[in-house]
Design brief:
heterodimer, A: mainly alpha, MetI-like fold, two-stranded antiparallel ribbon, 15 helices, 2 strands, about 70% helix, B: alpha/beta, D-Maltodextrin-Binding Protein, domain 2, 2 domains, 9-stranded mixed β-sheet, 19 helices, MetI-like_sf (chain A), cell membrane (chain A)
């Protein structure tokens, strides 16, 4: 971008410095307008769409959250921050936060590790690469609802596949839909099933742009494949890794379909008989559409929004440190390492 | 900056895509069938409604009317669907089926639905059992629903399971055996459980619903006051149910799943509370579980604690409908006694009009699936003495979200009866504003 901007200025330099404002022909003016304004027009569709589908709902939700608002009867009196106070003092809200974070950690961490490993394997010059890549992406094509229905049958407590397999190796039936940890594990499994391959492909794309000669020279220097993976691959894909971590954070904190459909026998799916796996989005849904309290539900939506921003920032900071990249101290350590190896 | 060509291409594609998105967003809606006489009426029902053949019949009799029907699997999901669309201010079908459990919440916004007295429902007032018509009448005298079915409750039982425990299997003997109050029902259940080691009923939630629906006043008093916490009658019934459940009479099934219907087939439980509309559900579950009529489910003319009504529905026309008059005409036709008889034959549910009830009672047609039981005639006797119960705005929330979870914990033996009741009261305070 900087180069394209600089070019016209270089063109303009030879013209004699005008006394007053330069008189431009219509064509010149049009061309200048084109130069200055076109980029904004090109990018405007996104911003217009974002304003309509993103910014407006965000602001409107804030308005709703400051009113008493019945789902059916509509707007009530203005109550300021009462809804937020109510929610922050509600144990069910905190329960839902705990469940969300627990499911998020159970899904995000294994998912990223497996995705990196899968991407690394796919990057090894396998035969029929397209076949393997498409195979990895296949679960992503299945809709979350279908995944949830299939897995809730697998984790059925009476006759499900999971329990039947456990029985084969002598383990008793497990209460997948009632035990807190097991239910979180089951839901995390659904998320992992769907997203691991997708993330692996994104990471694979990044890995393929790592210059091969780096690997070669490292190999010549005697670095083994594990060493090459940690010292070359991971640092080189750092920006992509950060992207994947942030998007999976956002997705992970918004889990809805999986817990909603995991056990529909409780009030049509409010997240377990004791809200063992009621995530925050599910709690918000129960508030809005069962209890018909739209105001409090909007407050939950905003709190969740803030939470996701917070989590995103923390993740960003952590992931900047994980992998050595362009940061200065990292480069120094790398040099130190190289010096050490030469010795 | 060698990428510039590619980025430009991407920008063009992104721009085109977003414009396409905007365009599609704008192009929905419209489709007003004004002049061409050809109109499409949308209808949303739930559960087993039995209307499919009637739609065809209506279309054949009314050229130019096309019916687009949607059926939602359960009443609970139909509620979410309807509530969401009311809140959004659009999207409701021209004819919407409303269930008794959430009628209370709908009545609070009854002005969102067409006053059917404008379409002559008053002339048909005598068709329905009186309380059915009154339940859909709001404080201003507006009537917002054509009654479809009511839910008089009888008892479904499994013949082979009864035989295995040495209990009678003939439906009249079963009726005589179980005649009495809930305590008596649980006594027989204790005998059954002792003899077979199996459960007597599928799960506590449905039994609890039928117990509550039987009372003169349920979760609310007749004047609309919340009436749960200090309601001794409710507490006593809860105690009865809890004792039986602790005694192993509940099969702790997940409702609307029943292990994929298999629990209906493999003798997991012996009895099942059956409001009229539930007969279709039972048949569907047995078939899903790989069973058929030979699985041995039967329907007895008896219900613990006497007559009770659970569920039933109305057909309403939302104010947002583009074809109110045509929709009202269709809903009116669908709820005529003649059509209700056909509906009942298709779905097994019980009609709300007196004419249809009489016809079913006198025909006493055997229901092949339920071991030849004359289900229509039995339901007609079960409907005798049914009283309407006032349903408050949060009735369905109390039923499902307040009492559902503690009863499930009780079924699974995680808590005892007293703790389950306390848990329910706690949930009531948290979930329902007084």
């Amino acid at each position: 971008m900087t180069t394209t901007l600089r070019t016209p200025r270089a063109d303009a330099a030879p013209t004699p410095p005008p006394a007053g404002p330069p008189r431009l022909t219509a064509k010149q003016r049009l061309s200048r307008f084109d130069l200055k304004a076109s980029p904004y027009f090109y990018t405007s569709p996104f911003f217009i769409l974002f304003a309509v589908t993103g910014l407006f709902p965000l602001a409107y939700t804030l308005v709703v959250s400051m009113h008493e608002w019945d789902l059916l009867k509509g707007q009530g009196p203005f109550v300021g921050l009462d809804n937020f106070v109510e929610i922050l003092g509600d144990s069910m809200f905190w329960n839902s936060i705990f469940n969300t974070v627990s499911i998020f950690l159970l899904s995000a961490i294994p998912q990223l590790i497996v995705a990196i490993v899968v991407a690394y394997l796919l990057d090894q010059g396998l035969r029929a690469p397209t076949f393997w890549r498409m195979g990895v992406l296949l679960p992503f094509v299945v809709t979350p609802v279908a995944v949830a229905i299939i897995f809730s049958s697998i984790f059925n407590e009476a006759d499900g596949l999971a329990n039947n397999l456990l029985n084969l190796i002598g383990i008793q039936d497990q209460a997948w839909k009632h035990d807190t940890f097991l239910s979180h594990f089951a839901i995390a499994t659904m998320v992992n099933f769907r997203w691991t391959g997708y993330n692996a492909l994104i990471l694979l794309a990044a890995m393929q742009s790592v210059p091969r000669d780096l690997y070669e020279s490292a190999a010549i220097d005697g670095a083994g494949s594990i060493r090459r993976f940690f010292s070359i691959t991971i640092p080189s894909i750092r920006p992509t890794l950060i992207f994947v971590i942030i998007t999976s954070t956002i997705g992970g904190l918004q889990i809805f379909a999986e817990p909603r459909l995991f056990d529909v026998s409780n009030a049509g799916g409010i997240g377990g008989s004791d809200r063992q796996f009621q995530t925050t989005v599910l709690f918000m849904w129960e508030l809005a559409f069962f209890r018909r309290d739209f105001g409090e539900a909007a407050a939950v939506a905003w709190l969740l929004f803030l939470l996701i921003i917070g989590f995103g920032l923390v993740n960003f900071l952590i992931s900047r440190r994980i992998a050595t990249g362009e940061g200065r101290p990292n480069r120094r350590t790398r040099r130190a390492l190289a010096r050490g190896e030469n010795r | 900056m060698k990428l510039s060509r590619r980025t430009r291409g991407v920008a063009a594609i992104a721009g085109a895509a977003s414009i396409a998105l905007l365009a599609t967003a704008c192009s929905t809606g419209g489709d007003s069938g004004g002049d061409g006489e050809d109109i499409t009426l949308t209808v949303t029902t739930f559960g087993t409604f039995g209307y499919d053949d009637l739609y065809q019949e209506y279309e054949a009799a009314n050229p130019g009317v096309k019916i687009e029907a949607t059926n939602i699997d359960t009443g609970g999901n139909a509620r979410t669907d309807a509530f969401t669309k009311i809140a959004a201010g659009s999207g409701l079908s021209d004819v919407v089926a409303i269930e008794e459990g959430w009628l209370g919440a709908i009545m609070e916004v009854s002005d969102q639905f067409v006053d059917l007295t404008e379409y002559g429902i008053e002339d048909r007032k005598g068709d329905w059992v009186d309380w059915k018509y009154e339940q859909a009448t709001d404080a201003d005298g507006r009537v917002i629903g054509y009654g479809t079915d009511i839910g008089p409750t009888g008892l479904c039982y499994n013949g082979p399971a009864f035989a295995a425990a040495g209990l009678p299997t003939d439906r009249e003997e079963v009726a005589a055996l179980l005649e009495g109050d809930w305590a008596h029902y649980f006594e027989v259940g204790a005998q059954y459980t002792a003899a077979t080691g199996k459960a007597w009923y599928d799960h506590s939630g449905f039994v609890w619903n039928s117990m509550v629906n039987q009372l003169d006043e349920g979760y609310y008093t007749a004047d609309g006051e919340l009436n749960v916490e200090d309601n001794a009658e409710l507490r006593d019934l809860f105690g009865l149910l809890g004792a039986a459940t602790e005694g192993g009479q509940s099969a702790a099934q997940a409702a609307w799943d029943w292990n994929g219907g298999k629990s209906f087939v493999d003798g997991t439980f012996a009895t099942f509370v059956c409001p009229g509309w539930m007969l279709g559900v039972v048949q569907g579950q047995v078939e899903a579980g790989g069973g058929d009529a030979s699985t041995g489910w039967d329907f007895a003319d008896v219900f613990p604690g006497g007559a009770g009504n659970w569920g039933g529905a109305w057909l309403s026309i939302p104010e947002t409908s583009q074809h109110k008059e045509e929709a009202a005409k269709l809903a009116d036709w669908l709820t005529q006694p003649e059509q209700q008889v056909k509906q009942s034959k298709a779905a097994g549910n019980f009609p709300s009009t007196l004419g249809a009830q009489e016809e079913l009672a006198s025909a006493a047609e055997p229901n092949e699936f339920f071991n030849g039981a004359p289900t229509g005639a039995i339901l007609a006797t079960r409907a005798e003495g049914v009283k309407a119960q006032f349903k408050g705005a949060d009735d369905s929330v109390i039923q499902e979200n307040v009492f559902g979870p503690p009863l499930q914990a009780l079924d699974r033996g995680e808590v005892d009866t007293a703790a389950a009741w306390d848990q329910a009261i706690e949930l009531l305070h948290e979930l329902v504003e007084e």
